[in-house]
Each structure stands twice: as structure tokens, then as C-alpha cells.
Amino acid sequence: KINLKINNIPVQAEPGSTILQAARAAGIQIPTLCYLKDVNKTGACRVCTVEIKGAKSLGAACVYPVSEGMEVFTNSQRALEARKHTVELILSNHCGDCLSCIRNQNCELQKLAQQLGIRKVRYEGEKTPPTFDEVAPGIVRDTSKCVLCGRCIETCKKVQGLGILSFINRGFNTKVAPVFDKSFNDVNCMQCGQCVNACPVGALFEKEDIHRVIEALNDPAQHVVVQTAPAVRAALGEEFGLPIGTRVTGKMAAALRRIGFDRVYDTNYAADLTIMEEGHEFIERVQHQGVLPMITSCSPGWIRYCEFEYPDLLEHLSSCKSPHMMFGAILKSYYAQTHNLDPRKITVVSIMPCTAKKAEVVRPEMRKDGVADVDVVLTTRELGRLIKMYGINFENLPDEDFDQDMFGQYSGAGVIFGASGGVMEAALRTVKETLENKPLDSLDFTVVRGMEGVKTAELEVAGMQVKVAVASSMSCAKPLLDEIRAGTSPYHFIEIMGCPGGCINGGGQPIINASIRNGFRPIDWKKERAKALYDEDALQSVRKSHENPQIIALYDQFLKEPGSPLAHELLHTTYSK
Ligand code: HC1
Ligand code: SF4
Q1: Is 194 in the pocket of ligand 2 (CB under 6 A)?
Q2: Which positions fall inside the 4Fe-4S His(Cys)3-ligated-type domain (predicted)?
Q3: Is the CB of 380 under 6 A from ligand 1?
Q4: What number is the ipTM of this complex?
Q5: pLDDT in tens, 481-508
Q6: Were 103 and a residue from 107, 183, 279, 326 both cysteine, which residue would form a disulfide, CB within 3.0 to 4.6 Å?
Q7: Cis peptide upstream of residue 129 (ω within 30 degrees of 0)
Q8: Domains annotated on the chain, with CATH
Q9: How far apart are CA 238 and CA 511, in angstroms?
Q10: DSSP letter at 171?
């Protein structure tokens, strides 16, 4: 251990740790901006500046290593003034549109300015010419608000292994941008939104579509159906100050009803439908020497990545559309027919924890006769804003059910789709029981649960040893993909999700601010959100997709059987190189 003093308090620290780590372990908070644990550690912004006794200049606590006998002052006048000066300089090149900013009251720069007592921007002058890119369907970049912290750059590089963003130009003209300041739409960006979640300010955000929902709700000719993704219920409460991991399924249904949607359904129902189709596809591939390993296809960020980076592996992808797209297709066909509605007069709104879903719905394959399966995607954050806009007192809403007619029931298997490993577990419940033709001894395939980037397991299914793997984020999926490319993959079935931990940590979920991510208030947010879903699974009376009575009815009355020609026409898709 290394002995040092911080603000005259004796502190012990592990060798090799930084002043910031030592201070945090001792409960002393030093403000940061560019630092993001496990992602970005450059000392570039100098907000974490501290005074070190005997040192000529001030040090950046996030990179400065501790040493024996060191004396650190985090709040000396010199440190405080330098920190304030740094933030004033950042503000001088910032557009200052705080009142109308998407991150107002949830902005780390705003918080810093407040914390440091900055009352006016002292250095008004010329500003770096900004770029505003809103061409891509999923995410928007507004460099007039960028603080050049580099957190997005490192997130894309380390989490997704992509490096879409970098610093371009020099000096005062420095910007964060895709190559040549291109649009996100014109580069190999997955639209996953992980960079958005890492942004401390309003420089990166989702393309907002709230106005389109309000328009549809106010159009008497439109029948507006909403569906909510599994992961939304595990995080929406955070937008209203509820603790991370609070499950708000019932309040969410109540809020959507009050907003005025004609039907309020749960994407979980369609997750059950996906398992029927995908489970059937897997069994077919195993029994008829199809392409293996088969890889799940519900995460549209992952699909874009596969199309861009591993086009030679597209035949490994399941042909299944993602659950909410399947739901859209069923609503615009079977539901429209049974209710005597013109599919053009139905607006399907999906509430998703994901920015890539906004890009998924505009894919040309996701339309039939010119009618889109799903019309609008709102992120969890946008739903939070919509609820506030409608003046709904969310915290005090009663718990209500989803609409129960036709698609209201779902199994526990559908709920867990939102956590990494959930799709695999849901599929295993159905595939194993179908092939073995007897009830499962245990429904909990805990080997594929948890927040590790890669999980593998070997299970016996009907006398066959089935090897499965689960990966979330592209940096974790890449080794599995390289193995397939090299012809050495031992797996039969692989689940891949675009975001670390799965949809619960999607790019459209409430922003987890850096003080939590950096561990000053240590909360394992991914685990807490995932737990909310596994708890909901355990509460369901039906926990296997193939036992959902409304799924059985849909096959009886409409689709006939999994993999039928009609199922293929509506529920399956193709990919492009
Ligand atoms: Fe997901 Fe899915 S689980 S992709 O992560 O397959 O977004 O939650 O809705 O469609 O069901 C997301 C979540 C979601 C789909 C399902
Ligand atoms: Fe990278 Fe995802 Fe951001 Fe695109 S959306 S730049 S892939 S982190």
C-alpha cells in the first residue's frame, strides 16, 4: 500500500492507482469531465486538476499516479481557480443553448458550471464553426455543444471496436466527427447510440420523433397502436427519479393509455413469436445440415455491423425479423383484417431502448406493399419526455395491464429478451422441450445469464451436445465472428446483442451519469436493470414462449405453423452486403 495525504487526511492506496482513484476510495470527490472509467483516461480536459505539494504545476488527478508521502490538495485556491478557468474556457466555445437543450438538467457541463459557481462566461469570442448532422435515422451530432472530451470516440473504439469517431482538424478548429466530417449515415456506424450514452452534454443524441407520435394521436383517421420493448420497463422509472432497477411495467402501461393510444401492447408477446420462428429455424438447420452456427438477429445495431464488417457471415444470421418488427407485421395484417382496418390507417409506435431501431424501421425490407411494419420508434428517454409533456404524474400512477385482447399475454421467456443471454435462454426453453417432448426439469438456464461480455455453455438437448455462446457489444462478439470466418467455431447457436449487457443498456436508455459509471456512487446499473427483468420472468404463470395461449391461437387462426409460407412472408427478412 502507498501512504499519502489528501486534504490533510491520511489515505492508503494501491500501488499504481491514480490520485482520483485514491480520493474516491477515501470518499473525497474530485470533479471530472473527460474521464470515464474503463473507457477514457487521457487527462485532457484538466477539470480534475489538483495541487500536489512540491510539484511545479497542478496535476490531472485522473492520470497522476500516487506516490509514497505525497500530499494532495483537491480544493486549494489554486486548484479551484484553475478548474473554474478551465470550465470557463470550455463555455466560451459552447453555444450556450442550455434552455432548449435536450440534456438540460442532465448535463455534466451545466452541473460543473453550477458546482464551480460560474455566473457568467468571461471569455466571449469567436466559436469553432459547428457541424449539425441529423441525416441518419438514429442519431444526431451537434458539435456546437461538444466539449472535446473524447468519451464518445473511446466508447466507439473500445466497446464496439469500430472507431467511427475521431478528432479531426487542429487547434481551434478541432471537432469530433466521422472521417472527413461525414454524416453518421455515410459511414459504417451501427447507430447503436453507445456514444450518445457516453456524451456528457447535448452534442450527441437520438433523432427525436415525438412530434410524429403526437401528430398520429391527433389524426382521427389513424388507429394508433403502441408496443413497449422488454428493457424499457427496467429503466423508464429513472427518468422520473426512481432508483435504478425499479420495474415500472404497470405504470408504463397506465401512462400510455392516458396519452391516448388506441391499443397498448407489449413487445414481449412478439418476443414469444420470435422464439417460435427462430426455434423452428434452428431445429431445421440442425436437422437438415443448414448453416451453423446460427446467430440471433433481433439487435439491429448488430445487423448493421454484420452487413458492414462481416458480410461473408450473413448466411449465419437467423432470417427472423426482430420481435417488434414481427409485431408490426402482424398488426398490419392479421389485426387489420380482424378489425376491418386499412393497414395504411394503422400507426404502429414502438418504444425501444435503442437508437438503431430507428434505422431498422426504415429498411426497405421492413415494408409490405409500401406499408411500413412499424411507423415510429421512440427511445425510453423520449417516452419519458412524452409522459412529462402530457403532464402525467408518473410516480403516482396505478399499475395497469396491457390490453389483453389478442396480443396481451406474454411468457417470462419474452421478458428476459432485454438482458444479454435472454434470447438464448428463451430459445433453449422452447427448443429443448420441443425436441425432447417432455416438460423441462428446470427453466432457468443460469449459465447464459450475467453481464460478462462473452458467455459460453454446452447443454444436452435430445441426446445431442449443443454448444452455445452469448456475446454483447461488438468488441466481445468479434472473436466469435473471427472463429466462424476461420471455420473453427465450435458453436451451434450464438446470441449477439449490439450493446454491452444487451438492450437494458441500449443507446436509447436513460443516461447513467458519469458519477455512477465512474464508481463514486457504485451501482451496477446493468445488473440492476437485468434483475428487474428476471424478477418479472419469475412472476409469470407461463414462462415458455410455446405455451403462450395467444401465440398458440395466432398459429391456429392465422399463421398455421412456425416457418409456414405466411410466416415467412410476414416475419422473416433478408440482409444485404
Ligand atoms: Fe430489445 Fe428485442 S429484446 S431487440 O433488445 O429482440 O430494443 O428490450 O425490444 O424487437 O423483444 C431492444 C429490448 C427489444 C426486439 C424484443
Ligand atoms: Fe460508434 Fe455506435 Fe456511436 Fe456509431 S452509434 S459512432 S457505432 S458508438
Answers
A1: yes
A2: 78-117
A3: no
A4: 0.94
A5: 999 999 999 999 999 999 999 999 999 9
A6: 107
A7: no
A8: 2-91 (3.10.20.740), 128-205 (3.30.70.20), 211-571 (3.40.50.1780)
A9: 9
A10: G
